[in-house]
Amino acid sequence: MNKPLTGIRVIELGAYIAGPFASRVLAEFGATVTKVEPPEGDQIRRWGLHEENQDSYWSMVQTRNKQSIAVDLHSTEGQDIVRELIRGADVVLENFKPGTLEKWNLSHEKMKTLNPRLIITSVTGFGQTGPYHQRPGFGNIAESMGGMRYLTGFPDRPPVRIGLSLGDSIAALYAVIGTLLALYQRDVQGGTGTPGQVVDVALYEAVFSLLEGIVPEYVHLGKVRERTGNQLPATAPSNMYQTGDGKYVAIGANNNSLFIRLMNLMGREDLAHEESLQGNAGRVKEAQRIDVAIEAWTRQHALADVLQTLNQHAIPAGPIYSIADILCDEQYQARDMFVTVPDERVGQVVMPGIVPKLSSTPGKIEWAGPACGSHTATVLSQLGYSQDKISALTAKGVIYCAIPQECPVS
Fold first, then answer.
1. What is the pLDDT of residues 175-197, one digit of tens each?
2. Paired strand residues for 248
3. DSSP secondary structure letter of residue 335
4. What are the beta bridge partners of residue 241?
5. Catalytic member of 55, 72, 168, 343
6. Could you tell me the pTM of the whole model?
7. What superfamily would CATH give domain 9-209+335-406?
8. Which CATH class is domain 238-242+248-319?
9. 3-class SS at 34?
10. DSSP code for 71
11. DSSP per-residue codes, 83-99
């Protein structure tokens, strides 16, 4: 069965997180993704935990389903290889600082000259235009300047970061959306001969886009939303609460009927019928008082009993999971969110499953992220390079092959 993106050819000129994450999603749904990385490999191969002298497990997830070719883009011959790839590609997905591709004679304009139908998806810190566009930018900076960090934490403490590269991941998903929109416009709305376009994703804008009603609240009401810890500033009650066995439960009873139901099962009919708490605005004003009452109830029971009671009364609730908890959860297991993938280097790798799930043409994990340069010889042969030429480029350090016998040095 074909996947939705079977036949789409993507060249990844990216490193670290945002660009490679985006191309990973495309690869999961059938796109042929060729990752171009330097001979020493994408630095993410050394990020996170890994076995001695092996690539990180993070990189094995990030580069799954991709081909890897190792090319020195500082060399003219290496640039020529990428130009040949571009001529036959549908998409180039890059996340280099503006100006980097120009140094390699691979500017957007030159790419479009090579292949007018090419879609170029660019993920950068600040986008392709504006006074900051030349600045470097990582997810850390985007989360800070995009407004997320200001809101994260407790009001009496400094802002904190989330323990994941969230800004990069948000931008990556926008890059996927933009790429699919551009493909649809080119191939369905336009058809044969329709040129491609540039998809411009800025990390800080991707984060900023999640700020709900904060912009009009400030412009029209003069209100600056501040850190509120685990409480939601716009609705209540919605928080996490400690249970009698020292664990935590998240509860969302932030509409009128849910609130009344929760108060009644807690034995707090007084709060359920208090006139000032019948609407959301009143509950927000009294959020702290309500949270104290809820936690007084949760602390009387073990987490499992709290969850059973809340689920029986159809009140949204869930435990605060560690990764160890997640691996044991039957819902995750039933939805195939853990996939065991064979790998010749470490035997097998357990990876997170695919999101979203398509009923007729689902994505699939075909292989774990390969070693750097695993497909160099194969891809160059497909481009028409002879074995002698491949050997000569290997000897000069222009390319690298993970399997030396495929790129013997003459």
1. 999 999 999 999 999 989 999 99
2. 242
3. T
4. 249
5. 168
6. 0.94
7. Crotonobetainyl-coa:carnitine coa-transferase; domain 1 (3.40.50.10540)
8. alpha beta
9. strand
10. E
11. HHHHHT-SEEEE-PPTT
